[in-house]
């Protein structure tokens, strides 16, 4: 009897890891396209005749759309199921990348990047729901850390390989955008073919009897959920600000574009380390609140090291900041999953709220740094502003309640 039970459970176990593998690949495509403008800023600015502020505004275009679309799309994910939702998300982000290749001025570049904001919630809100549905207890921390390395890996590839490998080989920044869009399109086909087999298993019960916005007031009455959302939104400022501007910041330290891109990739590679290690280890400490606070403090100090602009200290700052920024989103999302008021049942809507508010930071990050660069002629003021915001989040995190252990 025990052998029969084990045999019945094996296909389900295989599906779990298949879904986690797809989560990683889908998030890789997200990261590959999301910040692909960053390593190509110099040729794009030159050909389209853009200012730093315009580039910052364009980079913040998709988070602006995301803010309005994340929560309703989170509810839509709960209704459609993850198979359809993730397929639609991949198609839209693929289209966004390919349309960037056709940009001829600021409005067309802004519009092509903005389209990403309609597909991004399907991916970034859908994947935590997938993990919450297929994994329980401490496995959620491990699974969240694993799939979050996908977006960091995609971003690292985009930042590190675009100028050193892809652009020299293809010869055009437009061809780079077409290639990255094709990768997402191919992934959508794979998901369409292989994700359907577990479609029914991935649908979790939804809360009925509410309109699109009916559940917002109930979710937002929980203080700890608010704290997670506010802290998360500030980590988006750091992630989007540095992912979009770090290559150019490093070029301002008199580095070649290819070298700056490779060093900027350290930020994303170290995010992988943070995503894999810290969320899992946080369960062992017994106080995830302490881990969140310590990580925020590390991020604040590391940005100061980057702003100092002094040789090895810059590399150390990039690495430490990457570890911290990589750790915080999966850590905060597992805290959301483990809240009794949320769980897998309402993770679509709760994740939608988290990412919707978070992308306010996604809009502000690149705009702040680009604006202060135009205003002062230096990236220093923007980096110090971001450091101040993270320091305030460190203070705010001290008032969090420690979430219940799973």
What do you see in this structure?
With 406 residues, this protein is an all-alpha fold. It is built from 17 helices and no strands. The protein is globular, with a radius of gyration of 20 Å. Residues 1-8 and 198-213 have low confidence and may be disordered.
Summarize the structure.
With 406 residues, the chain is mostly helical.
Shape from CA axes?
globular
Structural class: mainly alpha
Q: H/E series, N to C?
A: HHHHHHHHHHHHHHHHH
Compute the gyration radius: what is it? Answer: 20 Å
Q: CATH superfamily assignment?
A: MFS general substrate transporter like domains
Helix content: over 70%
CATH T-level topology: Growth Hormone, Chain: A
Low-confidence stretches: 1-8, 198-213
Top-tier CATH class: Mainly Alpha
Q: How many helices does DSSP assign?
A: 17
Q: Would you tell me the overall average pLDDT?
A: 83
Spell out the key features of this protein.
Growth Hormone, Chain: A, disordered N terminus, 406 residues, single chain, 0% strand, 81% helix, mainly alpha
